[in-house]
Amino acid sequence: MHRHLFSWLNPIENGLLPSKIYGTIASWHERTRYLVNDVKNWFRNMMWQKRHSCFYFGRYKVVSNRWNNVITAFLTLTSVSSIAAWAIWSSISWLWAILIAASQILSAVRHLFSYPQRILLSSYLIPKIESLCLDIESEWRNIRLGVINDTKISSTIHKYEKLYLEYESQFAPIGIFPQKKQIGDWASKMTKEYFDQKNFNIGDV
Fold it and tell me: 65: buried, middle or exposed (CB in 10 Å: 19+, 13-18, 0-12)?
């Protein structure tokens, strides 16, 4: 009885729609659902990549600062003003002579390490990426709330990718920040923890 009363809800049973056409429409809706999900995944992946970059360059700056400080300390220790230490090191003057020679070589090739340049450029780049990440995360919340139409997600992605490329080309020219697996792995770990904490999950959309 109940089946008869509500049979009109099924367009195939009530004869309003042939099964073949109905199946095509159902398949189209299914494909559309997956397509929309793919676009949202695309946006979330972009959000992940930009946050990863923020952690990556941040860590790069810390490591570069550390090495730059070590080199500066070594050069200071072995500077001409420290020649007075000869009296202390007279018993092992050969070691002091080696350190002086090493400092002269290090001072001559220091510019090749690019630590000061990396520190300077990352100081400009990191705030830019951080601001970009916050804007992207705000857009993600709008996507979850349905404020942004699915058809506009692609253009939004394009806007932020373009901005990021501008920042990268300006503050991270090729060769200044060589890829470091250890730093990349650390950034991936931090990004995962950040996403877990913020609950940036595609399933919530």
Answer: middle
CB atoms within 10 A of CB 30: 10
Measured distance CA(75)–CA(108) in Å, rounded:
11
Left if phi > 0, otherwise alpha if psi is -120 to 50, otherwise beta: which for 10?
beta
pLDDT on residue 39 = 85
Report CA 19 to chain centroid distance, whole Å.
48
CA distance 39 to 152: 10
As a residue count, the chain comes to 205
The pLDDT value recorded for residue 18 is 47
The full set of domain ranges for the chain reads 15-204
Q: Would you state the structure tokens that stand for residue 85, as one six-digit string? A: 């230490």
Per-residue pLDDT tens for 23-61? 443 343 344 443 446 888 899 999 999 999 999 999 999
Alpha carbons 55 and 182: distance in angstroms, whole number: 12
The number of CA neighbours under 13 Å toward the Cβ of 27 is 6
Residue 180 · residue 59 · CB < 8 Å: no
